């Protein structure tokens, strides 16, 4: 996908606009499957929360992916996109028993991460296969908001509660067919991941009817030129060897599962904005664009880095700019960033905009959410229309408000 292709999309669909390169998604998917080609049974479940557009889900299904979901709505999207129920795993956190039962009735694989729901579900539905999410108490990942395997995390059943867990399974007679963990996102230290995996293997020895082990995901992708990333090939070699040895040791023909989200779609995404104003202050040059954290919240929420380049003037002389949005509070995409000289009307392009970008967008400040475009087989396909004013009002209910007495008196 070229710079000219991106400019053409911005011209045809306006800005701001999200663009996804299908070829990059496919290459990431095949890179991961190749890294674990030594595993007899491998299953990749795309994490729908990263980017849940129905066309993206359909594309993932066409690649042979399963689906990792965290809500009944994501489950329903997956079913509409063509995923079979048995290829979907549902891993919620803190949801009601009613929602879990609703999902179970659809034939989807259930993954439970707390003892209370485990006991309730096992008592009512002992014959429904259940996966258990454990918390290995291993700190992995980047920002604290995306590190979910540490001791203070709300996610998973603590490994120190395994005796209690086993008592529930024994008392209910429930069927445990999988063990799952997820330590966090932006994992770099493979040895820490492998250490956490050993905890998963050790836990798995307690269950005789296992069908799969789910190692989560969280692999780091590069966010800037020459950035470091998870060495998927090294991880594939080491974990494949250990997983195959475990299967042989236990006499179980297990499936190795992952739930990649960011790894598959982050680098495939581009977010194009237009510069409304170049504003010089006493100490800073601001490039003010036609978007804000209502469209891309990650820099403000996670302090995440998105490489930004001037699509209109990619070879211009570099200057320092702070790229900011139009939301009426602090709304900064980048501080003092070297970018090719920017003029009003230029198009700025944000990279790594495929994961947790549009999916976290909102209508804050009553702004419209942008369009989404999929670049597939050399053509641009609109996969979400830009919102309109009617969309803002769609679910609102306007009621008659009686005019107060003071207001009437004031009018007189």
TrEMBL record:
The active site is at 328 (proton donor). This is Diaminopimelate decarboxylase. It catalyses: meso-2,6-diaminopimelate + H(+) = L-lysine + CO2. Pfam families: Orn_Arg_deC_N, Orn_DAP_Arg_deC. Its EC number is 4.1.1.20. It comes from Robertkochia marina. Residues 18-354 form the Orn/DAP/Arg decarboxylase 2 C-terminal domain. PANTHER family: DIAMINOPIMELATE DECARBOXYLASE (PTHR43727), GROUP IV DECARBOXYLASE (PTHR43727:SF2). PROSITE patterns: ODR_DC_2_1 (PS00878). Pathway: Amino-acid biosynthesis; L-lysine biosynthesis via DAP pathway; L-lysine from DL-2,6-diaminopimelate: step 1/1. Residues 23-266 form the Orn/DAP/Arg decarboxylase 2 N-terminal domain. Specifically catalyzes the decarboxylation of meso-diaminopimelate (meso-DAP) to L-lysine. Belongs to the Orn/Lys/Arg decarboxylase class-II family. LysA subfamily. Substrate binds at residues 298, 302, 329, 356. GO terms for biological process: lysine biosynthetic process via diaminopimelate. Its cofactor is pyridoxal 5'-phosphate. The modification N6-(pyridoxal phosphate)lysine is found at residue 49. Keywords: Amino-acid biosynthesis, Decarboxylase, Lyase, Lysine biosynthesis, Pyridoxal phosphate. Pyridoxal 5'-phosphate binds at residues 218, 356. HAMAP family: LysA. Coiled coil: none annotated.
